[in-house]
Amino acid sequence: MALLMAAAFGEQQAGAGVPAVVLWCGCAVTALERLPLSAAVPATAVALAAYAAVNTDGWMTTALTTGGLCLAGYVLRLDAEARGSALRLLAQERAARAAEAESAALNERSRIAREIHDVLAHSLSAQLVHLEAARLLIERQPSGEFRDQVLERVVAARSMAREGLAETRQALAALRGEVAPVEDFLRQLVTAEPGEVTVAGEQRPLTAEASQTVRRVAQEALTNVRKHAPGATILVRLEYLPGEVALEVRDRGGHRPVEELAVSGSGYGTFADDDSLFPALQAGARGYLTKDAGGDEIVRAIQAVLSGEAGLSPVVQRRLLERVTTAPAPAGPRPAQSQLPDGLTPREAEVLVLIAEGMSNQEIARRLHISQATVKSHINNLFAKAGVRDRAQAVRYAYVRGLAHPPGTSFT
Question: What CATH number is attached to the domain comprising 357?
Answer without folding.
Answer: 1.10.10.10
